């Protein structure tokens, strides 16, 4: 006969597997016999079951509005930046500064990260991953480096937006259009307005809509006054909604602080006012 | 039930196209996996902002290092693996940078605040929402080593084997961590999960 105490401790460790139905039939019989005799283990089993039930009853996580759009914009920009290494001058400068700082930082933290991540003998993820995870985690890169605007490359502007010609990498990209090309993108504004920008999940019109918004942010960074004029073509009742979406896009893609600075330094009071509205960062937290 | 990792990978075709240079296939993979991955990150990090940043990091890393993906596991597993590492990494640096408390208070609002989900049953009443917020908050206080397995198993519903691949540990380790995590969470939840004392005396 087994010592009751030793059996008790060992069987108790099997209670989770019991809850999950992961015991062999032999183990199951043994544990069932023990449970019939041991009130302590029955209570333990009961409380474990309740814990598991609570976890499984958690409601599914809500996806924040515009999540996919922001993700795509971020990927679009960052991968294009990485591939082509060109773009607006300020962007190149920013990227250079970022990578220099990154290299210095990397030298400092690499060993530390290597230990902490703990991927022993991992065949699929190697030092390169550590590097990129380390780099992309730096807060200043996310917040301060402009990261929305694609280098103009692929001819995505003009008729492209409307006719769907020359699709950007992820079917999203912001087009670095010259201000005079605004007219070509304007039909997207209609799509934005008719689909009720800020309500519900991104509708089918979302793609054109997003492009217009990305383009607008780009315009705000380069030509604040042109941006203001363009923004004023939006019916007044719709402006808050559009602005809210642009604000989320700007904060979500890490371009907000740059855009806001540009708008503020333009000297145009209307631009400053829009800057303040974009700067209202707590909107993110409220969502 | 989820198919076993050995089962045909539903992403197989897209992964092939992406590897052949079709960026749109990658975009489709992102669309397919981002929602579920965000859910996972949200459970692990508790804050929308952190989860969204980690989500971007995850897919950017995938894009950069996707060529390292091998067919030993499903693509979805690989996504989770990168995401879990992003979350663990973030949690560790978070813990150093600032008090975790504000994150936790933010996440306590998940249950009742934000857009509430459609009611599913009686447990979604006001009291239910309060309990759920508490469970989520206590979950965030678990150590990362214990939190990841329990989230993947009890909430995401992944099998032991897949969790072992995601975490890069043996299956036995996954099992024992799930057990330890449940016990730790049970202690934290206290009276919420306390078994009722048995009325009848025990048989011993």
Structure description:
The complex is a heterodimer of chains A (287) and B (204). Chain A has 287 residues and is mostly helical. Helices cover 66% and strands 0% of the residues of chain A. Among the domains of chain A are: 4-56, no CATH class; 159-286, no CATH class. Chain A contains 16 helices and no strands. The longest helix of chain A is centred in the middle third of the chain and has 29 residues, at 89-117. The relative contact order of chain A is 0.09. By secondary structure, chain B is mostly helical. Chain B folds into two domains: 8-99, RNA polymerase sigma factor, region 2, helix turn helix motif (Rna Polymerase Sigma Factor, Chain: A); 106-111 and 124-189, Orthogonal Bundle (Arc Repressor Mutant, subunit A), CATH 1.10.10. The interface between A and B is large, with 66 and 78 residues.
Summed up:
The complex is a heterodimer of chains A (287) and B (204). Chain A has helices spanning 4-12, 15-19, 25-37, 39-56, 67-84, 89-117, 127-136, 139-143, 159-163, 182-194, 206-222, 224-231, 239-252, 256-264, 269-279, 282-286.
